[in-house]
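Colleagues,

For the teaching module next term, I've prepared a clean inverse folding example: a structure given as tokens, and then the sequence designed for it. I'd like students to try predicting residues themselves before seeing the answer, so please don't circulate the second half yet.
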């Protein structure tokens, strides 16, 4: 029996090596293969949902059962090829005036989903040319797959205290993707050891104290969630100051991680910083109407919070920056058609305004019809009044 299985094992080993080589050839930076099993972290994921830490990301709750096994994504799956694509680029520029900070992953001129899907399509083509009867399905982070669990199972790295996958060679500056395969292959050795040690820099540096404990994130307090996923309602008042200069996403827990300090830079041209996006002037952003917003951000990650969400973020950043040159733009935003933008502008003016601004807020209060905005206007006027006393 052992003699019969030896050629099969050699064949599986050769196929695995070849498939990973194909992944590197199409541009991925890490590749490993895991068995198609129920991920170890599935029940932790369910507990996380039960605690309410997903906030308004209701799609996770709706699809929670599908995450239990990759067979729910592709019934014939036997192996999961996990892949990583580095997006680390030049260090963040120093901000000045009314400029806002954007998460590094959004600096390029194309949405990373588009970049990765092109690579997955090419990889699938190569695999099927070599193995014509192998079924494949490429997945990015829109598919119901617990990518970090499978990446750890495939030996790519370990899940850090900031909940991100960490690699000794790449740090955490990478996107994860996967390729589901109907072939049984030789699997890589799972990454069993955490290399975070006693370090708690990521936990200590979080501006909004979003980590419940090491490895557990309350997304409702995470700046990335607040500025990207929470796109249809105001950001809670107690978290706005913690946003600091972050208008889209947040990199703080990655910036402070020692494993990222020596991580290599990305070779992907689409991720190179585009001067249209980094840095962004928050005052300029407030001037964009719907058409201008769509023209500027279409097919980029910054389209996700939509105009109302991104301009809401811009107003909050201006309130945090404390630059009085932003007052005219914020006063104009008080009359925006989107209530969420009006409310955020009122909050910012409460931080920046003087008696003249107080009078203009009072004028707006007389005609405002949205209850949330009325409350923001009243609170802003109270802030200005308290400062003048």
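(Answer key — instructors only)
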């Amino acid at each position: 029996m052992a003699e019969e299985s030896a050629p099969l094992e050699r064949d599986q080993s050769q196929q695995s090596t070849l498939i990973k080589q194909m992944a590197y050839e199409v541009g991925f930076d890490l590749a490993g293969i895991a068995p198609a099993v129920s991920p170890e972290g599935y029940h932790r994921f369910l507990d996380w949902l039960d605690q309410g830490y997903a906030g308004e990301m209701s799609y996770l709750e709706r699809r929670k059962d599908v995450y239990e096994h990759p067979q729910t994504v592709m019934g014939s799956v036997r192996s999961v090829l996990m892949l990583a694509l580095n997006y680390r680029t030049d260090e963040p520029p120093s901000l000045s005036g009314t400029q806002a900070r954007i998460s590094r992953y959004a600096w390029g001129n194309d949405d990373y989903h588009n970049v990765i899907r092109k690579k997955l399509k090419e990889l699938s083509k190569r695999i099927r040319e070599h193995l014509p009867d192998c079924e494949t399905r490429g997945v990015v982070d829109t598919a119901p797959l617990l990518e970090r669990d499978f990446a750890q199972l495939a030996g790519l790295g370990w899940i850090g205290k900031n909940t991100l996958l960490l690699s000794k060679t790449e740090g955490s500056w990478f996107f994860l993707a996967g390729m589901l395969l109907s072939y049984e292959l030789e699997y890589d050795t799972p990454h069993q050891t955490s290399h975070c040690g006693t370090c708690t820099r990521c936990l200590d540096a979080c501006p909004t104290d979003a980590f419940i404990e090491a490895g557990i994130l309350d997304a409702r307090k995470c700046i990335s969630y607040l500025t990207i996923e929470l796109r249809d309602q105001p950001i809670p008042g107690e978290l706005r100051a913690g946003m600091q200069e972050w208008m889209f996403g947040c990199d703080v827990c990655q910036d402070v991680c020692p494993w990222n300090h020596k991580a290599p830079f990305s070779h992907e041209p689409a991720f190179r910083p585009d001067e249209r996006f980094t840095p962004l002037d928050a005052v300029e952003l407030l001037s964009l109407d719907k058409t201008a917003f769509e023209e500027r951000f279409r097919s980029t990650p910054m389209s996700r919070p939509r105009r109302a969400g991104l301009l809401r973020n811009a107003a909050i950043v201006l309130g945090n920056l404390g630059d009085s040159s932003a007052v005219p733009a914020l006063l104009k935003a008080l009359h925006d058609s989107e209530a969420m933008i009006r409310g955020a502008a009122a909050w910012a003016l409460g931080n920046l305004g003087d008696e003249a601004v107080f009078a203009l807020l009072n004028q707006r209060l007389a005609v405002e019809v949205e209850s949330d905005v009325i409350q923001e206007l009243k609170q802003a006027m109270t802030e200005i009044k308290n400062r003048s006393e």
